[in-house]
């Protein structure tokens, strides 16, 4: 039974957008090869312990920090807030929630100023900051534009056991739900939540957590994503392509999931839609709709449901992973106990089953 | 043990290209919906028994004939030859081979003149013709250009039990091999063979045959293929998307396999390469190379290996299907008895297995 | 000398985005042919006097109203505000400015509720509304997706004689400047201003005004814009392609300008960048930079500088057009009295002039 | 009055395709920067006097040779023939025509074996070879694939005063005409001629000659060409973009013309159509059709008509340039003495002129 996170009496910080993720990697050189040589992220700064990377159209110092460490995990999901005062607001907000917080006037990473990090009610390390070093926005540096260029950080995705609890907490924090996946029993399997005017800044995926499901970067067009696959084939690392490319049902984006050398999952994503109106229609998908996760009905591989990255507390230790108690999306949709349909009415169409051929593992 | 088809003493007909396929469909209206409404092929002519379809850039009467009949099957794989005299050459060639042939001065279908159909040594109904009605080439009719426009017939693909036998026969007929799939024991699993300057006009896929594996149409760009998937999702017929989209290892083309209402397989295909030089390098792929069929290592669904369309003899009766005696590609690459690798040396790379995650069914 | 619009004491309405434009057309059937048959906008509703059109991803009733009338002109630039109360705020704001306003609880067009229209200080007919009929969002209706599909209304562009005056007024109204074009004498030639998180919801182009320069729709990818050109070629109306396609310097978007049957200019636009951060860097372009309007240095045709649509007052009469007194961008950049450079330092590079070949008309 | 080149009694050599061009450049380092750093051609081999370049999908040693020399010019238009014996055939053919020929068993360039170079009847340095060094075909080297990747040499384009004379000579040599531009007086302005199954291996453009109009490389998709423009903008060399990008009327290809540091013109080209059938329909365009050179009616810049590269004789001296006596395409289509139409019947359509706005220079 869901025990909701209380709603603080102080106002929530005014969040602008997801801004960067700090991940711990076990071999900095191999991770650099993946994120810089394969994916083409741009190095703002680096030393022997950390690499600060940004996407082409970014003007803040970084969207991704790779930090060397003993255990692959996520150290921070960092959001930019609207003004310096909103960092104070964030600190007060989480203090009232009884969460552990840590404020650093000089920031937790290079290029970022006054920040607060918290262990949030779901167990995730969230950061809020406003002050940041501006760097060259490479938008028109087409001399640097690779065939698979990543142009923006798009969103985070978090695994948490109790999606309604997480959703209510994030709604209090000012996020709005664009889409979700439910079943007719009222179970919520996932929810997509945004501050900026896209489908999400973060999403909650029901599962054992707190864990980081993926971090997503956007490309301009679909062919850029195909090139990333083609390049990974050429480099003979196609076994790091986990799922896709495909078209999402949820979000309508064209997508690809790949795995970095530590198994951290990265999504490449393009062309979702505008969500900036206050009454932007929320879309609820039936968990049994075979096109919800892939509009073409292509199967979701099991690892995509089960694998995710640990997240760290403010001391740098992994948070314990709590099991999801509700039904699992994988269990209810594939295999002996689950089912999916292509047509809601179950109409046979062509005297065939209504199941995607080959979709059942 | 392969018993080769003898090489005739008369010259082989000079084949220009694969030109059209005639397929028998059991419900003409439903097939029309698929090929015209979904795929957007252009109707040259139609009556209650047959529909004549062409791709955007075609100037001959048709690339596909849908003919109403009791059993879904293929009635003809039709090739265009270089001159009227080459139809005579084809007839003489197959007569010497002892094959049944039928010559019709007025053609077997509307829009085509003097033709010969044969039951070829592999059991396939091949047609050879030169005379044809020219129709409007719609190349610049961008007012008719759909988002998933099919612009050319690209190739046929035939299932035959004994690939080396078929290959030698087609080489005698003037085809040249661009690529093939083999193993270290010398077994050939498939071969791609061309007359025009692309990777193939037809391919041989090892399996129970004679059967038709697929007929392929080309688009201009990759996004056109993605649109076809998206549209099939919108029409809630994503269960007719059998495999892909993906990048082929063999041919390097971007591809998609879909199924028509009778289960006839259609490939949508774009961007293979020029093969017109006499010494065009032949590429041999190892059957265990996990990127041979899909450059990104995405798994081939079992139905793609096992399902195919019957072919008809000249009386319109289905040819009996003969079992392949050699090893099956599916068996040697997936499941308990097979294996595939991503890196030839089996290097673990990342302490991972070298197998595509999720690729094993 | 600029006489600035006073800043009201009441708060500005909280504007969400540009939402629709109402244009008067002289031949409704011919305009329908252009916007529906050629451009593929979707008809929400229509009668003998007006057609209500929306783009694929829109969920409000319309983005464009074509209204039959005697003089081709623009009847409204309509913005959506954040709540019903903001319509009151808008009314109060313009009343304090001494502008003529008209409030209609049932809206000025079908599908829109409580709205206020004003004759703004620059002479433009602005509308503010919140209430709106939701209609089917066609985002995933790929069965309706044309090769040149327009997916969103992107922005308006207004011609006004005094850009700094207009800019200060729009900044008071809550718009933020993303980019502008100036010269070293301090003359401003144009400014781009946004509420939503793109480069603009509207732009001010220096010239004789008030007039409407263009209304812009977005596509997903660049090839969609090319298809619109190709289709206009196929329909033999390439003389309605006024400028482009090209890459803008300002905004970095890929663009095309076309003319409807009345000469109203429509831009097709894709892939500008995120501007949602409070400190989003403003970019100032030198008016003599030959890549500011077209990143490839392709020339701007004179008509693009000189032609624009009349705008109507609240009685439906055309607003008088006032001449720009400051220097004209066309005059200072082309012809005998103007100049442009490709490289700022005027470096000859290749012993050539630094001028775009063929760029001088 | 055309004095035709006699038809030799010996058979014409069997030409496979245009294979490479050798151009003389005045500053090898600057040319390398253009062809390698900007355009991304792949270096097969280089020394202080020459650079051998190839496109991604090429398997012969090179498609372009840059040779250092005092005068920018073209040293050879090289065709590959079907077998070693065809080099003999070429030599005999031109000897009978009375042309100067030079045979080199070890080739004229690195990587090419037995070859013959001739000063052809039109004054062009043609080469014919079969023997060639095979190099790595980079087709699937997506790790090397740039955003503007050039994948094939597509064609040559030659300026010659008398197009019908050149055309008849090339038809004798085995080329077939795919398209041409004429007027109602019977004047031919240009002709496109092919051996491989594309629109052309070479084209004849009417003008003062012999000169080289351009050499063309193909990309896979249209966005690759747009990227080349974007990159040239980023490098502030947009003044080397001479014309385009656009859609050709003739050939239907998407195109771009750029200029190398010596003013040699390079076309980037994609998506023409299959021409391999013996009765491939020839398309004749009216010189006054405003969409013949650009399907969107965008104007052809004068330099494109007037500028071209010198060609060398077998001693390395520039061939004298002979003036075209017939009408010039530029003169008959633009300016006071010329005219073009968008609609053949001259229908006003929209009460407008039928001329492309801004198209008249």
UniProtKB/TrEMBL annotation, chains A, B, C, D:
InterPro entries: DHPA_dOase_Mn/Fe, Glyas_Bleomycin-R_OHBP_Dase, Glyas_Fos-R_dOase_dom, GlyoxalaseI/FosfomycinResist, HPCD_C_sf, VOC_core, Xdiol_ring_cleave_dOase_1/2. It comes from the Bacteria. The keyword S-adenosyl-L-methionine does not apply. The keyword Iron applies. Keywords: Aromatic hydrocarbons catabolism, Dioxygenase, Iron, Metal-binding, Oxidoreductase. Residues 339-361 are annotated as: Disordered. Pfam families: Glyoxalase (PF00903). Its cofactor is Fe(2+). PROSITE patterns: EXTRADIOL_DIOXYGENAS, VOC. Residues 17-131, 152-271 form the VOC domain. Residues 342-354 have a biased composition (Basic and acidic residues). Belongs to the extradiol ring-cleavage dioxygenase family. This is 3,4-dihydroxyphenylacetate 2,3-dioxygenase. It comes from Pseudarthrobacter scleromae. The lineage of its organism: Bacteria, Bacillati, Actinomycetota, Actinomycetes, Micrococcales.
């Amino acid at each position: 039974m869901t025990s909701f996170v209380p709603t603080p009496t102080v106002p929530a910080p005014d969040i602008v957008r997801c801004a960067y993720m700090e991940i711990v990697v076990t071999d900095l050189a191999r991770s650099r090869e993946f994120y810089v040589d394969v994916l083409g992220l741009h190095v703002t700064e680096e030393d022997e312990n950390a690499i600060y990377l940004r996407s082409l159209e970014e003007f803040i110092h970084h969207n991704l920090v790779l930090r060397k460490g003993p255990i692959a995990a996520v150290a921070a999901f960092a959001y930019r807030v609207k003004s310096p005062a909103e960092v104070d607001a964030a600190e007060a907000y989480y203090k009232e929630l009884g969460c552990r917080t840590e404020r650093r006037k000089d920031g937790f990473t290079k290029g970022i100023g006054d920040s607060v990090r918290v262990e949030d009610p779901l167990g995730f390390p969230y950061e809020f900051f406003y002050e940041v070093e501006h760097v060259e926005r490479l938008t028109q540096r087409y001399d640097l534009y690779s065939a698979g260029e990543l142009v923006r950080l798009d969103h985070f995705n978090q695994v948490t056991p109790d999606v309604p609890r997480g959703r209510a907490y994030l709604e209090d924090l000012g996020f709005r739900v664009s889409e979700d996946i439910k079943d007719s029993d009222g179970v919520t399997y996932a929810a997509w939540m945004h501050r900026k005017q896209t489908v999400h800044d973060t999403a909650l995926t029901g599962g054992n957590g707190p864990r980081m499901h993926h971090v997503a970067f956007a490309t301009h067009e679909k062919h850029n994503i195909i090139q990333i696959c083609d390049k990974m084939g050429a480099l003979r690392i196609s076994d790091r392509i986990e799922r896709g490319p495909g078209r999402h049902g949820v979000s309508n984006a064209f997508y690809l999931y790949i795995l970095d050398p530590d198994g951290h999952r990265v999504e490449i994503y393009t062309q979702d839609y505008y969500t900036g109106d206050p009454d932007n229609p929320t879309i609820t998908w039936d968990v049994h709709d075979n096109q919800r996760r892939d509009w073409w009905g292509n199967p979701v591989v099991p690892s995509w449901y089960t694998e995710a990255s640990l997240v760290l507390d403010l001391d740098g230790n992994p948070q314990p992973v709590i099991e999801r108690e509700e039904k699992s999306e994988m269990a209810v949709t594939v295999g002996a106990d689950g089912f999916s349909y292509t047509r809601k009415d179950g109409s046979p169409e062509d005297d065939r089953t209504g199941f995607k051929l080959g979709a059942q593992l």
